[in-house]
Specification:
Mean pLDDT: 80
Order of helices and strands: HEHHEEEEEEEEE
Number of strands: 10
Strand content: 15-25%
Number of helices: 3
Distance between the termini: 34 Å
Largest sheet: 4 strands, parallel
Number of domains: 1
Strand order of the largest sheet: 1-2-5-8
Radius of gyration: 17 Å
Low-confidence stretches: 1-14
């Protein structure tokens, strides 16, 4: 019982630190290379556990391929209603369109309420979850806790 009392306050402190970054308010409207650079800047400025919130319905990457290398959440517009009996995504209204690829180089990454659409020129693996440095101490180790 004493262990539970100790864990709960620590969890509350960790959870309280997570910030919600309003991508549209901070970076404004953009597309293509500029949009990819803004996403990179948002990830760079975020702390692990932060949420980067996308409040527009459509983001056109025009063949660019962003990368995420931090344990953050990318979240689109949260739907007003949710059908818990459905399998898969429902009521997703935020789209990342014309992506060349979408690379993730981090454990503890979450993607919520976002639809990823590839660019027509994409002819290879669209989503990549791979180690940043192949010479890591244990090159057979995998990323963990990726939620999509």
């Amino acid at each position: 019982m004493n262990m539970i009392r100790w864990i709960l306050p620590v969890f509350a402190v960790i959870s309280a630190r997570a910030a919600i970054i309003d991508f549209d308010a901070v970076y404004g409207s953009a597309s293509g290379w500029t949009l990819a650079q803004h996403l990179s800047a948002a990830v760079d400025s975020a702390s692990p556990g932060d949420i980067i919130q996308f409040n527009s319905a459509y983001y056109d990457f025009q063949g660019q391929g962003p990368s995420v290398d931090k344990a953050v959440t990318l979240r689109g517009i949260v739907p007003d209603s949710f059908d818990g009996s459905s399998v898969g995504a429902t009521n997703v209204t935020t789209v990342f369109d014309h992506l060349k690829h979408f690379n993730v180089y981090s454990s503890n990454f979450t993607l919520q309420h976002l639809e990823l659409r590839e660019d027509a020129s994409t002819t290879y693996a669209f989503n990549r979850f791979k180690r940043t440095v192949p010479e890591d101490e244990d090159p057979h180790q995998f990323y963990t806790n990726i939620v999509v």
